Amino acid sequence: MAISVETFFLAPGFQGTLQAQIQQLIAEGILSGRFRRGEKLPSSRKLATHLGVSRITVTLAYTELLANDYLTSRGRSGYYVSENAPVPPSFDPPKPREDRIDWTRALGRRFTGGDTPDKPKDWANYRFPFVYGQTDPSLFDHANWRLCALQALGQKDFTALTADYYDQDDPELVEFIARNTLPRRGIIARPEEILITLGAQNALWIAAQILLTQRRTAAIENPCYHALRDILNQSRCHVDAINVDRDGLNPALISNEADVIFTTPSHQCPTTATMPMDRRHALLEHARNIDALVVEDDYEFEMSFLDAPSPALKSLDTEGRVIYVGSFSKSLFPGLRLGYLVGSEAFIREARALRASVIRHPPGHIQRTAAYFLSLGHYDALIRRIREALKARRAVMQDAIEQYGLTVAGQGAFGGSSFWMRANPEVNTEILAQALKSDGVLIEPGHPFFTDEAPPQNFYRLGYSSIPSERIPEGVSRIARALGQR
Amino acid sequence: MAISVETFFLAPGFQGTLQAQIQQLIAEGILSGRFRRGEKLPSSRKLATHLGVSRITVTLAYTELLANDYLTSRGRSGYYVSENAPVPPSFDPPKPREDRIDWTRALGRRFTGGDTPDKPKDWANYRFPFVYGQTDPSLFDHANWRLCALQALGQKDFTALTADYYDQDDPELVEFIARNTLPRRGIIARPEEILITLGAQNALWIAAQILLTQRRTAAIENPCYHALRDILNQSRCHVDAINVDRDGLNPALISNEADVIFTTPSHQCPTTATMPMDRRHALLEHARNIDALVVEDDYEFEMSFLDAPSPALKSLDTEGRVIYVGSFSKSLFPGLRLGYLVGSEAFIREARALRASVIRHPPGHIQRTAAYFLSLGHYDALIRRIREALKARRAVMQDAIEQYGLTVAGQGAFGGSSFWMRANPEVNTEILAQALKSDGVLIEPGHPFFTDEAPPQNFYRLGYSSIPSERIPEGVSRIARALGQR
Predict the structure, then answer these.
(1) Extended strands (E) in B360-430
(2) Which residues form a coiled coil (chains A, B) (predicted)?
(3) Using alpha carbons only, what angle is made at residue A297 by residues A296 and A301, rounded to the nearest 5 degrees?
(4) Contact A336 B308 (CB under 8 A)
(5) Domain range spanning residue B21?
(6) What is the pLDDT of residues A130-139, one digit of tens each?
(7) What ipTM was predicted for this assembly?
(8) How far apart, in whole angstroms, are the C-alpha atoms of residue B303 and residue A297?
(9) pLDDT tens, residue by residue, B431-472
(10) Which end of chain B offers a freer environment for a tag, N or C, measured as fewer CB atoms within 10 Å?
C-alpha cells in the first residue's frame, strides 16, 4: 500500500531544519510501525506541495534516508520503505504521551469495576469449553445467512444499507417480529409497541434508564444475570435481591416498595428454573397490587426441547404492566446483537427517544439481513437444528454428571444450554476454574451471579452450546477429578 | 408460509368450549392480519398434541371454519387460510389492550421532547432535497462494499461474525484506524487509546456520560449540533453556550467554570467555520489554564476539497486533554453507524465499560467489513470520488446562490457538504421550509441549532450531498422565489 501524503504534518514548534523534520517524520513512521517494509512513499513533488516546502528539501530528506537504508529507490517508480528498514520492536509500543490529566478528578462517573466478570476471549482454544452464550460454528447455518446478507446488500435494499433511519427501525423486521415471533410467545403487539435494540442487554439497559431513578426500587432475582446488576447499580436505584427457589422468583417475597420487578420466568438465569403458570399469575397479581411494572427477560425461550415453552408472562398481561425483552442474539449468534423491547406505546416512545440519543438505531443492514433470514424460514430451521443438538448434548451431559457424581443445583423444565451446578460448600469454584483451565477445561464460577454480601463460592455453571458431545464425558470427568470426587 | 403450531396458546380463563376457543384463535389470527390468505395451518394432529386436546376437537373447529370460508381444505395436503377469508381492515389495526398503567408516574425519566427535530424520512421522494447527512446512492461504491461484506461473511471470519466479543473491538479495524486513519489527522494513538462506537453520536454520548455530572459545566458552541444539546440536557450538567464567530469557537469567551469544552474545529456545525491554527493553540492553552477537557468532534474532515485539512486539535495535544471523536458514518454512509473515540487510557477504559453495559460491542460483521473496505483502499477511492462530486456541486451551489441573491451566513475554508444560510430577519425559516416542501424543495430550518432562549428564526441549512448538480439551480431558484427575492 502507498503511504498517503495526508499522514505528514509539519510540527509548528520543531527545532531544526525542514529537511531534518521530514526525515524524522518518515523515520518515526517506520519505527512506530505505521509505515511498513515495501510501502511506497509519496512522490517528492506531491509531498513538497502538501507540506508547502520546496521539492529539493524533500528530495534531500529522501536521499538521506536512502543512505541510512530506511528507504530504497526503484528508479522511476519512486521511493519505498526499505526491506532492511528497522522493524519496530513488537514488545515496545510507541511511548505513551505524558498524561497530565488527573483522571481521578476528571472522570465524572465510573463504569469500570462492575460485577460482570472477565471471560476468557480465547475460549475456542480450550479442549473442554463449558462456556455459556457462545456459538458452535458447526451448528450455524452459515450458507443461508450469507445468502440473506447478500440479498440485503443488493441494489434494491440500498436504502436499508445506507440510510440514516433517524429513530426508526427496519419495517420488515418489526413486521416479522409482530406477526411471527411474538405470537409464538402468546403476545400480540402492534409495531408502535416494539423497538429493535442492540441485543437483549441493550434492551434491559434502556428499560432501566427509563423506569428507575435514585428514588426507586428494583426487585431482582438472586442469583441473577450479573450484567443486569451492573446496569441497576449504574442507575443508582435501590436494589432488592430476592432468593429464587426451584420455581424461580417467588412473588410473595417481593416487598411492597418495588417499582420494577426484573424476572426471567422461562429459564431463570442462572439456575434455569422454569416458573409454573400459577406462579406467573400470582406474580402479575402481586405486581398489580403493589402497582409495580415487570420487565420479563425471555431469553432462550426457543431452546425448550424438553417440553413446549409456556406462554410468556407478557401474554398474560392485560394491563400493559409487563415490558418484554426478546433477543435473537443468543439463538442466532451473540455477535449479531439484535434484540427487541415490547411494551406500551408510552414506554416504547421514551425508549425510542433514548435509543436515538445513545446510538440512533441498530445498523440497517443487519436488521434487513435478519428479516430475510427469519422470513425465509431459515431461522426456524436453525432453531430446530440447535435444539436437537442441545438436546443430544444435554443427555450426554446428564449421563456424565451422574456417572462422575457431580451435583446439579438448578433444574429447568424446558431445556436450555447450561446446567447450574453446586460443589461441596468448602469448594471455591473461582480457584477450581483456575486449576481446570490449565487442564484444558473452562467452567464458569457462580459467585458473580449472587447479590449477597458474602456470595456462596461453591456454585458454577456448565454451558454446553460450544462443546461437542464427544468431548463432554472427558471434560466432566476432569471436573470431577479436580473436585476430588474420583 | 406455514403457520407455526407454536403461535397457538389456550387462554386459561376462556369462557366456552375448547372447540370454540380454537376457532376463535384462528379467526382472530386471520382478522388481525397475522395469518394470511393461502397460509397453511398446522395439521389437526400436531395442533391437538401441542394444545393437549383431543384431535377431534381440532378437526371440528377446522370444519366449522371451512363452513365459514375462513379456511379451505386441499384434500390430503391439509387446511389453508381461504382466499375468501376476511381481510383485516388496513385502517383499523388490532385494538390496543386497555392500558392501566399511569405512565406519567411510571416513567422515571423522559427522553422525548428533546431539541433534535423530526426529519422527513421520505426525503428521497422530493425533487430538490437540500438535506444534510444522507447518502447519494450514485456515489457509493456498492460493488466493493458488497465484496468486502462477502469476504467478512466467509468461513475464515466466522468468529468475527458470530462471537460475543464481550467488551472488545475488531482488532483489524482498530489497527487500521491507528495506522492509517488517525495519522492523517496528525494523531498517534495506541489500540488501548481507541474505542469503536456505534457512530459519532454514540461517541459523544459516551463522553458526556463519563465526564459530566449535575455539578459540572459543559461549554458548547452556539449554534451547535442539536443532538449534542439533547445529550447534555439528559446528563443534567450546566450548559454554557458560546456564540461562534467566523473562526468558530473563541476560547476567550469560555468561562473558567467549564469542565468540558465540546468543539467542532474542522467544520463548525452548522456554520462550517474552520478554526485557524493559532486559535486552536489558544483553545488548548485556555483549556490547560482552567483545567478543562476538550471533546473534539472531527466530523467531515475528509470532505476538505477546497484546501488540505488542518491537523486535528488532538494532534496538538501533548497532555491527554483532548478526546477525539471520529466517524465513518458520514463519509461512508450514515446507516453503517461506526465511529471511534480516541483518548487517554484511563478515559477509554471507562468508555469501554460503559459501552459494554449499554450495547456490549458494535456488531462484529460490520466492523470486519469496514476493516476490509478500508484496508483494500476502497475507502480512500470512495472519499476521493465523493470529494470531487461535492466540489463540483459546491461550485454549482455557489453560482446559483449568487445568481439568485441568497445570503451565505457561514463559510468554511475546506469545503464540506452544506451551506449555512441567512434569510432576512423577518423570515421564519420553519414556515419557509413548510411552504417549500409542497414545491418539492427540502431545506433545514436553523433554529434547532441555537441554544438561545429566543433562537433566531431566519437561518437555514442547505445540504448538497444528496441532490444531483443539475437540479441545484432550479432548487435554489425556488427557494429564492419563496423568499420573494425574485
Answers:
(1) 407-410, 418-422
(2) none
(3) 115
(4) no
(5) 5-81
(6) 998 877 777 8
(7) 0.82
(8) 44
(9) 999 999 999 999 999 999 999 999 999 999 999 988 999 999
(10) C
